[in-house]
Amino acid sequence: MNRTSCSLATLRHGSALAVLSLAGLLASTGTAMAQAAPQAVDSPAVAGQGNDQVATTPPQTGPASEEVVVTGSRIARRGLDSATPVAVVGNEEIRRQGATNIQDVLAKLPQVGIPGLSNTNSNFLTSGNGVATINLRNLGDSRTLVLVNGRRFVAGLAGTSVVDVNNIPADFIDRVEVVTGGASSIYGSDAIAGVVNFVLKKDFEGLTVRAQTGITSRGDSPKYNISVTGGQTFGSDSQGGIIANFTYDRDEGLLSRKRSISAEDCSSLGCGPQSYSSYAAQGRFQLYNGGVATGNAGGYASNLFTFNPDNSLVSGFPSGYGYNRNAVRRISTPVERYLGSANAHYDVSDALKLFVEGTYVRTNASSAIEPYALGSDTDLGFGFGIDNPFIPLSIRQQIAARNSDGIASNDVDEISFRRRQNEVFSRSNNSRRETWRVATGFNGTLADKFNYEVSYVHGELKDHTFTQDLDLTKYANALDAISLNGQIVCRDTAARAAGCVPINLFGYNTASPQASAYVASDIPREERIKNTEDVVSANIAGPLFQFLAAGPVQASLGAEYRREKSSDDWDALTNAGQNTGNQIPDTIGKFNVKEVFGELQVPLLKDVPFFESLSLQGAARYSDYSTIGNVFSWNAGGEWAPVEGVRFRGNYAVANRAPNINELFSPPAETFPTVSDPCDGVTATSGGTYAAACRALPGVASTIARNGSLTYTLADIQGINGFDGGNTKLQEEKAKTITAGVVLTPGTLIPGLTATIDYFDIKVDNAIGIVDRQTSIEQCLATSLPQFCNNVLRNANTGFITTVNAQNVNIASLKTKGLDTDVRYGRALGLMADDRIDFNALWTHTFKYQTQADPAAPVRGGVDNLEFGEVFRDKVTGRVTYTTGGVGLSWSTTFLSHMYDQLPDRFEENSATGDPVIDGHNSIKSRLYHDAQVTFDIEKGFEFFLGVNNVFDRKPPKLEDTVFYGTITGTTTAADVYDPFGRRFYAGAQFHF
């Protein structure tokens, strides 16, 4: 999909900071797990970490002996003593990136893959425009569990568990903790790829106002952000506190025409007029006889005609007369957010501490899509009658001459058309989403050793997406016009009585406002989504007993009840299939799950030769779903520190993901797929892979006996339909995860240095997916297995395929393995007062990434050729920060290695199309992006900052639309991976009162 290479010339243009950054990247020799652990509010900095906090191990928020609860466990332990790698990104690191959307920060972490949804890949969605999701290990955002303060957050998409992180204000985040690998035994379903836990700020005094704005070097795609955070503690010894944040954020997006790479339509023919759409704004028309294009009589090339901008007639359809769709498309969608968040707590005593968290978010987003391409064959099934009074005079005269020349094959009985509906309606979406969530409960310490918590969470999403649309029944009436008593009217008398206005499509801007209003649907095409989530949970943790000198056995025990509901309600015309989209039914579903879970930590040895420490850990969860029944997940691991400063860790987990509401309950939705039947053309004697299996089908044999062969017409092919839908017989996905690594903290040997190297191996079986329709057809013939043949329906009398369905089944598999490395180093330089340098580098090296849609499908990906634009062989991020006297300088780099972006039907390594241009583009060079920031502490409580992202204005790779697998429509690149904006400047200030 994307790769970008770092050339020596590029490096020569960097500063000394760039050299330091690159040197640090080269020095880290493993693959990195997420990074930087930020400190808790008012806690001392970790030695060697300074203020720029990014680490793959949990933060230590106090003395080394202090125990805290970190993501991946419910048992308190020392920050670096986690058996599972935990990546932490702190508030300071978020600020160093000048990011206002937390997705932009997390996307740079090596273990975070291509987002399922972002503002650069959601422009063409019917809903979900501008939604931001997290995809760990490229296993899918539905397999990444997102938490806020360790608790679930309501889903941002209909019928799923996928969280829209647009609902989490960046300025309200204290730190983000990321665990990759199966964590279902700790947190339940969806944690196959891992967990992202947003820990919000808690205790805060005063008022902070932060404002920021930015724009690209080309003067477009502006962003604005203002955030106000206020807090107050109260009571004796600050036993209570409240903190609130309001954030307003606006990203105005970017039009495709604003970048040369995407200013014009592209195809296998290249970019420019030759690739423009044949559905032109002025129309493309063709003379037909009984549904077949007539000959070239009359001087019209292939009997095509169109119009000049002055609406004079043009013979044929010359290059350049098509429609440039990219002129109105977007690279990124505009998103406007209003976010309000508040947390409050009151400690009645150590045994009883009350808390409440509240969130309300309103998001406005929109897309920009070219007007609808209406075709007489594809949408209406018929074109203009030859008595239509809007037909240009010269064309009417030609039709009359042809129909009276005595040559039947030369007759014309219809004019087909393709035309863009510019005057009629815009099909661009407008979305308004409202999300609110309340989490409340109490916790405390019992008997001075047992920590407990009881909580309740309620979340709700309402999403309304709407756009204009056509009523195809009315359109058919308006198209069928006649001349009556000197006036042009609709032919159908009932339609005329109901207000029908005839429509003229011959030329630019010929459809009158009255006709356009008539053919538009009375109600907009709209989708209304409502998700609700309720979670009640309780757990208790603490020491049980001690039977060895290494320390007490720690345990955690808990229970949880969760209820999810979702409704996806479409307008009546969409339900009936009477507008320009496919027929889509509503989806309504719900489920509940009851769970019990436990965790155990057993210290075995401590402070003896070769065993500085040795311990074992394990966890298990039993779940009872109202939909799929019982599910069991577990993990087991251990840690061994042979000497001080060196600790080995490992963990094995069996995780799961229960099918979501969409996968279970979505009703069949009709589509018209493009498929081919291997039996097409088969005769009684023909050979080939499937010929014998075809002749064995009674209907096919009957047609061959009757006609000599089974031969499809264009109408037969276009008439094949299919239904996508849920499956209430689905079961859970299952994953097996291995992590193993080493944590190095040299201490006195190299003060300020920490490093982690961790191996990961994740395999997902029974993954929910669909069997490719073409695969179903071919494998049914080859194997007769029901998982394929149940999807294919043939006419019993003729053998022709009539329907090919694609229902969700537990049939796919995914595998990935690799190495994460994280290196951090910091020290005071002593060259100037209070000067300090901090460095961190994160590197993920992927050994394997493979997906298989079903057991008969080819395996995508491989060890030596990571393809399809999904996973980079190497992804590295690094940052070096120098601070002195209130001035901070920060330089960061992100490296994306070489990638193959092969076509989806070419899975072999080093395969080629034969087109050197396409094959050259399929191999995408690596890229190195640079960002820089400088901060100034003007005076106490006032900070000013300036930054530049993509300092050297690195361009994205060019991937022509429809040719490459990873291309995002309208961007001519993989805009969700490579930077499509170019150099961006931003500036801001922060005041604290």
TrEMBL record:
Membrane topology: Multi-pass membrane protein
Primary localisation category: membrane
Domain named TonB-dependent receptor plug: residues: 81-195
Keyword annotations: Cell outer membrane, Membrane, Receptor, Signal, TonB box, Transmembrane, Transmembrane beta strand, Transport
Positions with biased composition (Polar residues): 50-63
CC per GO annotation: cell outer membrane
Pfam families membership: Plug, TonB_dep_Rec_b-barrel
Localization in the cell: Cell outer membrane
Signal peptide: 1-34
Region (Disordered): 43-66
Domain (TonB-dependent receptor-like beta-barrel): residue spans on this chain: 417-951
Family: Belongs to the TonB-dependent receptor family.
Protein name: Outer membrane receptor protein involved in Fe transport
Species whose genome carries this gene: Sphingomonas aerophila
Phylogenetic classification of the source organism: Bacteria, Pseudomonadati, Pseudomonadota, Alphaproteobacteria, Sphingomonadales
